[in-house]
Write a structure and sequence with these properties.
Bound molecules: 2'-monophosphoadenosine-5'-diphosphate
Structural class: alpha/beta
Distance between the termini: 19 Å
Radius of gyration: 19 Å
Shape: globular
Strand order of the largest sheet: 2-1-3-5-6-4
Number of strands: 12
Number of domains: 2
Order of helices and strands: EHEHEHEHEEHEHEHEEEHEHHH
Number of helices: 11
CATH topology of the largest domain: Rossmann fold
CATH class of the largest domain: Alpha Beta
Strand content: 15-25%
Largest sheet: 6 strands, mixed
Mean pLDDT: 97
Helix content: 25-40%
């Protein structure tokens, strides 16, 4: 794409950012929709984060994504933060205009949109959901499930105190269970989500007996490397519908792209293939 004097600029700030798939993802959309724009990696050290953010706004950037380890610092740096950011204590998308920084968090949106696209038959209100994990990703998942009116969310984490903190912070129908209870927690569930890093390449798998999980339940993983985690393979083999984690990454990028570049982008099979081919 040829750049011009009017090129709209955005990027991703983090440390490191070399592994980020966001430039490839946004680059695909920019080309696909023939937009005069650029989305670049912005590695920034901790001491320069806030100054860097302000400088980008001064230089006319439309905004940025913020990734590890700056999502909490981004919340503090913004002039205005939407509910999604306050609720999760973290901001992953910033929109710049008139020198002001407006932040929000699109991870919960990405999670639920991925489920809706991958399993349109899933009915949130019908049955309990089981969420494994209590880190930042699990918070986004639980918040999104509360908003989707899931009647009961059973939250299980190796370190129970972190799950208790999530339940306390995100007021909703969340029931915390002990780690050894995770197999029994699956009975009558309509959805199971792995929101831990277990199952990721070079990590141990999530050990979970699925015997009590109804066959009609949907199973999803936030891990997308590998695309089919041991959990998803196990669930698919017994007949459960599975939704992999790549879509969460792709869908969470949509609100930022639309705000910066003025086009609501689509998540398509071709985009999935393009991002995976990296
Ligand atoms: P993120 O913010 O990306 O979700 P995180 O805060 O490091 O990352 O959370 C990682 C999650 O994976 C946590 O739920 C963690 O459990 P603990 O809170 O007990 O640490 C979970 N996790 C990581 N390795 C694990 C393991 N070997 N067994 C069980 N849970 C594990």
């Amino acid at each position: 794409m040829t750049l011009s004097g009017r090129t709209k600029l955005a990027g991703v700030m983090g440390w490191p950012v070399a592994h980020s798939r966001s430039p490839r993802l946004h680059g695909y959309w920019l080309q696909h929709y023939e937009i005069d724009g650029a989305y670049v990696p912005l590695p920034v050290r901790a001491e320069a984060f806030e100054h860097g953010l302000r400088s980008l706004a001064d230089l006319g950037f439309r905004g940025v994504n913020v990734t590890v380890p700056y999502k909490e610092a981004a919340l503090a740096a913004c002039d205005q933060v939407e509910d999604s950011g306050h609720r999760l204590g973290a901001v992953n998308t910033i929109v710049m205009g008139d020198g002001r920084l407006r932040g929000f968090n699109s991870d919960g949106f990405g999670f639920i949109e991925n489920l809706r696209q991958g399993a349109p038959q899933w009915q949130a209100q019908k049955a309990p959901a089981v969420v494994i994990g209590a880190g930042g990703a699990a918070r986004a998942v639980v918040a999104a499930l509360i908003d989707a009116a899931v009647p009961e969310i059973r939250l299980v984490n190796r370190t129970r105190a972190r799950a208790d903190a999530v339940a306390k912070d995100l007021a909703g129908p969340v029931q915390v269970l002990d780690w050894p209870e995770r197999g029994r927690a699956l009975s009558e569930a309509g959805l199971l989500v792995n929101a831990t890093s277990l199952g990721m390449t070079e990590q141990p798998p999530l050990e979970l007996h699925l015997a009590d999980l109804p066959r009609a339940a949907l199973v999803s993983d936030i891990v997308y490397a590998p695309l089919e985690t041991p959990l998803l393979a196990q669930a698919r083999a017994r007949g459960n519908v599975v939704v992999d984690g790549l879509g969460m990454l792709l869908h969470q990028a949509r609100p930022g792209f639309e705000a910066w570049f003025g086009v609501a982008p689509e998540v398509t099979p071709e985009l999935r293939r393009f991002v995976l081919a990296d």
